[in-house]
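Students often ask why we bother encoding 3D structure as a string. The short answer is that it lets us treat folding as translation between two languages. Here is a chain of 161 residues written in the first language.
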Amino acid sequence: MFKNWKVICQMTDAYFMRALIMLDVATDFGRMIVERLPEFFTIERVPIPLSVMLLIAEENAIKAGLEGLKGRNGIVEYGGVPSWIPLTHLALSEDDDYRIGCSAFPPDMEERIREDLFHCELRVGNKYFLGKSELIFLGICFSIYGKSFAFCPAECVVVDK
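And here it is in the second language, the structure alphabet:
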């Protein structure tokens, strides 16, 4: 079972909506909720709203002892991306990450990323193309080797904020 994000995100009770967002449907309690409130769930996987991913990451950052996310970065680091969403990590050509399990940007995509960085327009939720595939930017990930840029397929996410 999967969450029906369209129905959940239209709820007016913010606390109940948050509870459903954080609910683990794989637990006994989660399965009981699915059984009793079937309108909030679906058998088909549907795209997850970006705002929900941000909320989950924010909750996890607070659990980790932080005051929350700084800006909108941290979706990947703080578990806001569901495990079923495939991530693509790309690095700028001068960074070392692309040599350690991370590919370098194709030249045309790197040029657009650099322009967006320079003009302070690189935002979580921006859409980019990698060949013919549309990707959604999810944030910058930092490691001891440098930084990489995390993307996911556009069909997995609804950019709502």
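Translate back mentally: Helices lie at 5-8, 14-22, 28-36, 50-63, 107-118. Keep this in mind for the problem set.
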